[in-house]
């Protein structure tokens, strides 16, 4: 109420003489600049630059099946990078995302094999376990108020140890047993790890899932109340709570979304490789975060997009495979990757600065 | 107390009901093929147990967590320990400095013998000297073929990676390979580099090394696919670890390539793939034997003063080739995770 009272005198004072809105603060900026200010545009240009570069530098990239391979690599990063990006927009990040993928796959594989169950049972239980890990991360974060770096660093280390120790305890080995001859395997494989043909090119189903999830995430972010909540809790938790956003629910559910992503990618790995090595996944969490950041998400939260993350993951996959297609010296592989990524981030930054400058 | 327990049990009731229902559902969902039930309960080889006094041996390796290879080494060591009435203390760290600390830790525990891998011999020089000064016998295994004598180790059990690579190269000549892709799952690992270099030394065709990210299987798969696309003349893919060979088989089919796959090291899924003809051959350095002999060697030294190899020559555990001709025999043991 006090706000309207304060605002009233302002209405009473006549507007300043002369043409309206000459101070430029509310003037419509040119369309091109407005477009450039979107979080995904910088990374889009970066991705195009990288694509064009490799189209010239590496002739095999021009082939359709090579593009399918690059998209496959991008999709395995991208499916996980999407929920990680939503979480970052919501102001947190998850270091346990990489090993959580392996935890999920191990759960499904060991449960099905050891109890000789239909693999779908393992798949469902793995989903519950993954969601529970996400919920635990979120709950701990909200309850303790500790930064997500510490909370998820803890779960990262716990899961890494649990993955190894439990696998060894149950199977006696450090990898799970082959489940490819069990009931339900081929069905589940169709869902998580099949291949279909488009114009003579074999495309992996993960590419489709990746784009479907991206569309879904974009819709949620831009068109739903929940999307607004994500931006709000990432921008400022306290003001979000003050205007009635359920901060606790939003944060915990975002962590559970990461759990869902980990489950999906974990199932893909299980059903495309039949077994899971318990030591895998370490280091992947940083790649997911990198894809989200390249995609225009801010490490501080409150800003970013799902589409940008798609381009971010694509850029990662493109650079990673492009270097191989170009046949460059493999010893330099990681260095090339780093240089190209830094370059991409700089382009991104430059575009955004230019776009938002008056 | 009574009052508080009532609402709790009422709240618990549906949980219990759901759990019971889930258990019932699970029971109805059993798989009719594969799984644990179909796995043969192969009994472990049981031998007599030594009556010598109890001793403690530390096995310190440079294992990265979750590597199937090292798991087999450890199983061999455990089998020997069980037979020889030895308490085995296993520890591992891929970081050389940390591994040296683990050896120091074993010295502090006053163990009766130390078995150590020498992936980075220089980093371990100091601490091995300390062990010898405190009168603890030290044996080497797996890596460090060229350094174990300088460090005054008792004996050494392992495979010369270069020799294994060279044998691999000769085998590739035999099968008529022209151009080989050598897939390295860990960039900068000395042993892996020696394997590729060894292959290149004896192989008549060209060897292309390729680094892949060993902790991310989908990435390994698409990287090999990409390389096969980039260079269609590759007719053999050589991987340096068993899990990567199985992935390479998928890459070959994804790339529509006619390349064949062969690998260093074994595991039980690999045996199946060799039987099925998806993988041509594997060269085995017998990790079980390395772990077993290292622990057993310390026992022999303590109780009978024996030196394997007379303290002059290493005991070579590989290379042993596994292909269609002998896969059935070895497959029995690999199924138990001991080959």
UniProtKB/TrEMBL annotation, chain B:
Keywords: Signal. CDD domains: PBP1_ABC_sugar_binding-like. Residues 29-49 are annotated as: Disordered. Belongs to the bacterial solute-binding protein 2 family. Its main location: other. Coiled coil: none annotated. Pfam families: Peripla_BP_4. It comes from Streptomyces tibetensis. It comes from the Bacteria. This is Sugar ABC transporter substrate-binding protein. Residues 58-300 form the Periplasmic binding protein domain. It is found in: Cell envelope.
């Amino acid at each position: 109420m006090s706000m309207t009272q304060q605002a009233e005198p302002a209405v009473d004072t006549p507007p300043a003489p002369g043409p309206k809105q000459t101070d430029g603060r509310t003037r419509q900026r040119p369309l091109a600049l407005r477009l450039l200010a979107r979080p995904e545009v910088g990374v889009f240009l970066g991705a195009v630059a990288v694509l064009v570069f490799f189209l010239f530098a590496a002739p095999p990239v021009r082939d359709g099946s090579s593009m399918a391979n690059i998209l496959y690599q991008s999709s395995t990063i991208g499916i996980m990078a999407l929920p990680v990006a939503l979480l970052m927009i919501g102001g947190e990040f998850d270091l346990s995302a990489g090993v959580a993928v392996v935890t999920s796959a191990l759960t499904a594989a060991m449960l099905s094999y050891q109890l000789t169950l239909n693999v779908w049972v393992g798949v469902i239980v793995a989903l519950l376990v993954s969601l529970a890990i996400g919920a635990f991360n979120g709950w701990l974060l909200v309850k303790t108020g500790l930064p997500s770096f510490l909370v998820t660093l803890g779960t990262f280390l716990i899961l890494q140890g649990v993955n190894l120790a439990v696998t060894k305890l149950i199977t006696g080995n450090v990898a799970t047993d082959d489940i490819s001859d069990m009931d339900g395997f081929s069905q589940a494989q169709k869902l998580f790890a099949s291949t279909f043909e488009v114009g003579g090119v074999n495309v992996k189903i993960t590419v489709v899932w990746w784009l479907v999830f991206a569309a879904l995430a974009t819709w949620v972010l831009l068109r739903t109340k929940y999307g607004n909540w994500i931006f709000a809790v990432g921008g400022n938790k306290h003001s979000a709570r003050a205007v009635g956003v359920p901060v606790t629910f939003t944060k915990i559910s975002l962590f559970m979304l990461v759990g869902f992503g980990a489950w999906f990618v974990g199932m893909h790995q299980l059903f495309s490789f039949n077994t899971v090595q318990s030591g895998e996944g370490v280091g992947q969490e940083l790649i997911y975060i990198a894809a989200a950041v390249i995609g225009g998400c801010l490490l501080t939260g409150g800003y970013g997009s799902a589409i940008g993350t798609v381009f971010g993951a694509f850029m990662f996959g493109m650079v990673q495979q492009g270097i191989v297609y170009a046949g460059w010296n493999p010893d330099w592989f990681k260095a090339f990757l780093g240089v190209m990524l830094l370059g991409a981030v700089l382009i991104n930054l430059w575009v955004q600065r230019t776009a938002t400058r008056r | 107390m009574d009052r508080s327990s009532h609402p709790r049990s009422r709240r618990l009731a549906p949980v219990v009901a759901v759990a019971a229902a889930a258990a019932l559902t699970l029971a109805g969902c059993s798989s009719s093929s594969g799984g644990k039930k179909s796995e043969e309960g192969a009994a472990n080889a049981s031998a007599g147990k030594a009556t010598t006094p109890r001793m403690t041996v530390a096995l310190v390796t440079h294992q990265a967590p979750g590597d199937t290879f090292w798991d087999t080494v450890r199983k061999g060591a455990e089998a020997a320990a069980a037979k020889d009435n030895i308490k085995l203390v296993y520890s591992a760290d891929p970081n050389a400095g940390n591994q040296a600390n683990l050896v120091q830790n074993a010295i502090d525990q006053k163990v009766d013998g130390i078995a150590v891998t020498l992936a980075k011999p220089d980093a371990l020089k100091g601490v091995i000297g300390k062990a010898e000064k405190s009168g603890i016998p030290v044996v080497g295994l797996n890596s460090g073929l060229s350094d174990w004598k300088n460090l005054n180790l008792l004996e050494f059990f392992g495979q010369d990676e270069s020799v294994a690579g060279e044998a691999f190269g000769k085998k590739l000549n035999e099968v008529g390979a022209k151009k080989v892709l050598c897939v390295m799952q860990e960039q900068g690992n000395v042993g892996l580099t020696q394997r590729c270099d060894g292959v290149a030394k004896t192989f008549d065709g060209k060897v292309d090394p390729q680094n892949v990210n060993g902790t991310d299987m989908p990435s390994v798969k698409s990287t090999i696919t990409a390389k096969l696309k980039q260079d269609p003349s590759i007719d053999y893919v050589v991987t340096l670890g068993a899990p990567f060979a199985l992935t390479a088989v998928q890459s070959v089919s994804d790339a529509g390539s006619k390349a064949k796959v062969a690998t260093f090291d074994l595991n039980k899924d690999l045996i199946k793939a060799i039987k099925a003809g998806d993988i041509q051959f594997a060269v085995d350095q017998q990790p079980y034997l390395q772990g077993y002999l290292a622990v057993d060697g310390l026992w022999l030294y303590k109780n009978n003063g024996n030196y394997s190899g007379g303290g002059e020559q290493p005991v070579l555990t590989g290379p042993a080739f596994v292909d269609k001709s002998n896969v059935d025999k070895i497959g029995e043991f690999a199924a138990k995770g001991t080959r």
